[in-house]
């Protein structure tokens, strides 16, 4: 993904990404905070973060270095005295990394926002998360936040269709369209056994159409790559014209669309502050900023806040009959069932091949503080 911000902007046709909201700067807000404007609360949090040292480390789920720089850059522009290190990697790598940091009592991350939605209830139970209700908390959808304030959905990510602009009206839309003879040798997908959101996409398809759908899809001789960014970026190049299960590319060679009948996937990328975060004041500022109405109204796609308008031309994120934003979390919460399906998919598509696209040189290690793997 050449330009993460442009790539996400290209995906706005899906309503793919939205930062969201939350209220008060403390788990039990005071009367003064309750009556203060969000801007006043953010300014006070900013002062606290600067006094703390002005440092912040964020671990962000993704599959390309710099993929979350649009967040870091917007945050630093808003709060110029802050220094932020944002480390992007597969969520399944970050959660293992965080488990190790927690167990070793050497936590270097302050905030995490990941796709591995099942981790957050577990971390809460283990006492690994900081209880904190950010600015705008009462405006966040109840369905995507912890009632006690330990974690919250921060923005929605959606995976649907990515098709080459050259196809025009002939672009595939529904799952069955991808089986048409004209698309043989022209499809490119992320390994579903490498990304649980893509795995869930395939699970929904086999639930609806049976494993026979997989057999027909594989008969199209699709290309499989690591990372949704690389899969969508390939569309429109080298003869590849279509993909489902990713969120769009900044190349200008493709467009995104949502199927009307076939299942697709969207979910609230969820975030939290670590209990042993080195920079808690900065972490509270970041969580409150990303969930503030001011940021949400200028962000992409559906908001996690109930008081921010749905993107033009789209239904509410909970109003699609062929997509349940809570489905991925339920799927990931049943690890035994997930692992059984992953083993089945592995028989169809084979073992995952290739380097981690978020860390191609294997430099991040156990305690990364920046994208180059440098430790603080």
Automatic annotation (TrEMBL):
Organism: Streptomyces eurocidicus
Entries under SUPFAM superfamilies matching the protein: Periplasmic binding protein-like II
Name of one Pfam family that matches: SBP_bac_6
Protein name: ABC transporter substrate-binding protein
Range of residues in the leader sequence: 1-25
Keywords: Signal
């Amino acid at each position: 993904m050449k330009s993460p911000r442009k790539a996400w902007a290209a995906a706005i046709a899906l309503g793919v990404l939205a930062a969201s909201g939350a209220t008060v700067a403390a788990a039990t807000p005071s009367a003064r905070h309750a009556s203060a404007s969000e801007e006043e609360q953010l300014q006070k949090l900013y002062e606290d973060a600067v006094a703390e040292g002005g440092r912040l480390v964020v671990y962000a789920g993704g599959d390309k270095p710099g993929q979350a720089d649009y967040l870091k850059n917007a945050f630093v522009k808003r709060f110029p005295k802050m220094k932020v290190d944002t480390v992007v990697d597969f969520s399944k790598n970050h959660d293992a990394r965080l488990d190790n940091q927690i167990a070793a009592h050497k936590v270097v991350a302050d905030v995490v926002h990941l796709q591995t939605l099942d981790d957050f209830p577990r971390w809460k139970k283990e006492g690994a998360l900081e209880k904190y209700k950010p600015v705008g908390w009462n405006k966040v959808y109840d369905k995507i936040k912890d009632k006690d304030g330990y974690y919250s959905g921060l923005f929605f990510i959606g995976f649907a269709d990515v098709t080459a602009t050259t196809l025009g009206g002939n672009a595939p839309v529904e799952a069955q369209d991808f089986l048409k003879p004209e698309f043989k040798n022209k499809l490119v997908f992320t390994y579903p056994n490498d990304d649980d959101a893509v795995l869930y996409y395939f699970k929904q398809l086999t639930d609806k159409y049976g494993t026979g759908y997989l057999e027909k899809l594989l008969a199209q001789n699709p290309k499989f790559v690591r990372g949704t960014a690389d899969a969508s970026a390939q569309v429109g190049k080298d003869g590849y014209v279509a993909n489902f299960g990713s969120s769009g590319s900044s190349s200008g060679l493709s467009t995104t669309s949502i199927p009307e009948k076939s299942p697709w996937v969207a979910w609230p990328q969820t975030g939290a502050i670590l209990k042993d975060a080195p920079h808690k004041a900065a972490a509270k500022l970041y969580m409150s900023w990303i969930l503030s109405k001011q940021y949400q109204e200028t962000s992409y796609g559906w908001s996690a806040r109930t008081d921010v308008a749905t993107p033009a031309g789209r239904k509410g994120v909970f109003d699609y009959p062929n997509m349940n934003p809570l489905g991925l979390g339920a799927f990931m919460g049943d690890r035994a069932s997930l692992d059984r399906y992953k083993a089945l998919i592995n028989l169809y598509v084979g073992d995952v091949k290739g380097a981690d696209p978020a860390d191609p040189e294997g430099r991040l290690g156990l305690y990364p503080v920046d994208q180059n793997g440098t430790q603080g």
